[in-house]
Amino acid sequence: MAAAYKVVIVTDARPTWHIPLVADWEVADLNDPDAVITAGRALAARHNVAGVLTWDEYQLVPTARLAQILGLPGSAPEAMRACRDKGRTRTVLAEHQVGSAASIRTISLLEAVLAAEFIGYPIVLKPASNAASLGVIRVDNGEDLAASWEFATAGVGGVGSESDDVLVEEYLDGPEVSVECVTHRGVTAAVAVTRKTVGFAPFFEEIAHSVDARDPLLAEVAPVATAAVAALGVSTGIQHVELRLTDRGPRIIEVNARVGGDLIGRLVSLATGLDLARIAADLACGTAPDLAPTRSRAAAIRLLYPDATGTLTHRSIDDQFARTTDWLEDVRWLRDPGDRTVLPPAGDLDTARIGHLLVTAPTADTAQQRLHLALDHVTLTFDTRTDEQTVDTPDA
After folding, report:
1. Taking a C-beta distance cutoff of 8 angstroms, is the pair 265, 247 a contact?
2. Is 3 contained in some domain?
């Protein structure tokens, strides 16, 4: 964005790596929506602000409120609340006959028991307004419901919470994908489809993603994704729409009104040439983006997880391989030796992920082959002796 626009930011601490890219900033408590808006207004008093956007799921509603206050382009706060509150999302999609999942709001274990019996097992428990699959768990029978309820309710609330309910939902069986969408003045275009790998059942940890510019699946899922965006009243911005491919057709999991996480925006850029960050800035300023692809290839990312909870003792990738492999676009470590890695249910992606590998290729199949080859050059070791319920993790 900084290559095309002067950027000012609201952040929770004094910028570090951001400094070469930003012209000004305000520090605010991001847990306090009013403080975020006050900080944004302070920046607008010092600069001629043309647009407001966020990449943070929890800041969608405050950002929409700020754009509205400043008279700038953006979706209405009510539309952002409808995306953030997944119970509201289900209601709106049902009203507009967009394929989704049966869903019942609950505030107690008793209500969850009754809802599960009504929907039928397996079911999914999901905090209504969290993100990153925090607190989301599949439940296959009534015997597991009480413990699963405790896990789900632990994920309720937090930053920017638009609902404290837990949803009991129909389990949608089938491969998971996301559709990356661009909306300008109420018209939505689906620009890419991301195929996902989800692991660590009964939890829903996303461990890999791939984007192919020529993926024929996009034509099948685009109508459902764009219909969901329209139903929720989203008029401007980027949307990361998650679906399951069921035997009844594509069904919406949720609509996230932001660029997808896990570097999905970068996968889209490497595969198609469409820079979602730049496009998001254009949209925020009311400018129609150029959606003509300039590339046609595939890109994939693998998030690195341990096999069990423990302490990371070593992590590396063969140096010669990394230096001489031009299709290995990025290797990044998120944990250092000595750090403890904790898998669900005690942990989440913030405590479990060790790093990632990102590759490009002419086709999706070749991208997967290259990911596997790159993984063969990665060494991870862990000490799990302090964890009673785990065993030593072999090198990966």
Report:
1. no
2. no
Q: Within its chain, how far is the Cα of 179 from the centroid?
A: 12
The pTM (predicted TM-score) of the whole model is: 0.92
d(CA 383, CA 372): 24
List the domain range (segments joined by +) for residue 69.
8-75
Structure tokens at 80: 């952002």
pLDDT in tens, 101-146: 999 999 999 999 999 999 999 999 999 887 667 889 999 999 999 9
Measure the CA–CA gap between 93 and 355, rounded to whole angstroms.
Answer: 36
What single-letter amino acid sits at 332? R
Token pair listed for 316: 């590396």
* Token pair recorded at residue 63: 């950002």
Report the distance separating Cα 79 and Cα 89, nearest Å.
10
Same domain, yes or no: 66 and 118:
no
Q: Which amino acid is at 180?
A: E
Is residue 27 in a domain? Answer: yes
* Per-residue pLDDT tens digits for 31-51: 999 999 999 999 999 999 999
**Cα atoms in the Cβ-side hemisphere of radius 13 Å centred on 115:** 24
Residue 388, C-beta contacts closer than 8 angstroms, at least 6 positions apart: none
**What CATH number should be reported for the domain holding residue 376?**
3.30.470.20
Q: Within its chain, how far is the Cα of 67 from the centroid?
A: 23
| Cα gap 194→224, rounded to integer Å | 15
Render the burial of 112-140: b for 16+ CB within 10 Å, e for the rest.
Answer: bbebbeebeeebbbbbbbbbbbbbbbbbe
